Amino acid sequence: MKVLFATSEAHPLAKTGGLADVSGALPAALQDVGVDARILMPGYPSALEKAENLSRVFRIDLPNHGETALLRGTFPGLGFPVYLIEHAGYYQREGLYQDKNTQDWQDNALRFGLLSQFAAWMSGPKSPVNFTPDILHCNDWQTGLAPAYLHFEEATPIPSVFTIHNIAYQGIFSPEVIAKLGLPKESFSVDGLEYYGNLSFLKAGLNYATRITTVSPNYAKEIQTEAFGMGFQGLLSARKSVLHGILNGIDTREWNPATDPHLYTPYSFENLAGKSSNKLSLQGELGMQCNAKTPLLGMVSRMAHQKGSDVVIEAAPKLLQMGAQLVVLGNGEQKLEAAWRKLANANPGQVAVFIGYDEGLAHRIEAGADMFLMPSRFEPCGLNQMYSLRYGTIPVVTRVGGLADTVIHASQENLNQGKANGFVIDHLDKNALAETINRALILFRHKLAWQKLMTNGMKKDFGWGKSAHQYLDLYREMLKVS
Ligand code: ADP
User: Fold this and answer.
1) How buried is 417 (Cβ within 10 angstroms: 0-12 exposed, 13-18 middle, 19+ buried)?
2) I need a labelling partner for 281 at 20 to 30 A (CA). Which of 88, 93, 316, 466 fits?
3) Which residues line ligand 1 (CB under 6 A)?
4) 417-449 pLDDT per residue, tens
5) For the chain, which domains are there?
6) Which parts of the chain have pLDDT scores under 50?
């Protein structure tokens, strides 16, 4: 089984969010179950720097894009093949999708049109490389045009999978770019790429891929509804027979409290004392009073409306009254960043806020906090709640997307049955959040009950093995092989 995995980011080559975590880990997990999975992505500066054994396969002058080259290398540390598209004008800049003022790059249609075009080209009979995939696996809008190129250019295109990591990002551009992208005029129709007078890369992927997947079973259902489909619910309902939800895994090598180099002390469910010492060290690092009994609430996320951190800010006075400490790491929307800074300035020693991206601190928060707040308005899968479960940090989440698939609410019934591992809020607002945390704090004061919640999460297997098998089953079904 040979799979070309086309993506716009893959950790550790380049990362802005969860897509990179999946794209870095899933091809590796597919390799482990015997699939020859290879990544295709843009040759950003960080990718060129981190990929190993790079060599140029060919150079070409493309009519609409100019001088382009394809490099072949290997994935850092794991050695499976990675293809990088080298294009000085498109990819040699800081910022994957946006400039430093968080404005989308003006030429994103061309930048990711080129990625999509390469994905289709390498999947067809005229492939410029010595690798003929059985399946093309595309991810999010940046690779959405690839199934459309296959559809319009190949008599018998190979089957393709399009995975939705977040339907909020739809790759919408003015229709003028269609000609520059080398797509036929007839592709711009309501049954094709047109989305209310514009071109949508996402729609192309949803319409022309053989199968659609998304990153949790619950999100697969939600996106067929008006509340979560973001305009695509009709199309997705119409294609529901080919729509599957496969829960993401997490990288259990990188996120393992027993071996994590970012932590102060290693720990595991057999040695929970280590977690407590991470908490005390983190409180010290943050300039907070070091006290194991003071509840420490953590949050690591993009500061975007999706993530509900505005509701945490609204609920903060109540949380602080309850005696909690709050540590927040994230960046994104300026209004949210400013609101968090203001809250931290008003509550020194009780609220610590770090605006920026810091991998090490993210790990130390996961290890040191007692609870992890993730009150998302929607959440396709979510990774941080799984990191939290693995680190014995009780997740407090909303009942949406993958959060609902992974966090089992500490209701009396679930506690009695010994399966609860976190707290789930049904309808998000500041009162519901504060009430839920208040309830959680009652349990927090009962050490044994709290430890049971922690170990329920810590013992669960969130590795990629299970997901990789589900993708393999899907590929086999598409090829009708067993
Ligand atoms: P999304 O992809 O919507 O941003 P996920 O929970 O699926 O959300 O994945 C986010 C990933 O990015 C996680 O690995 C998380 O730890 C990481 N992350 C987000 N913001 C930061 C930050 N400011 N510093 C370090 N890591 C971050």
Assistant:
1) exposed
2) 316
3) 17-18, 21, 300-302, 329-331, 357-359, 362, 382-384
4) 999 999 999 999 999 999 999 999 999 999 999
5) 2-249+464-479 (3.40.50.2000), 273-459 (3.40.50.2000)
6) none
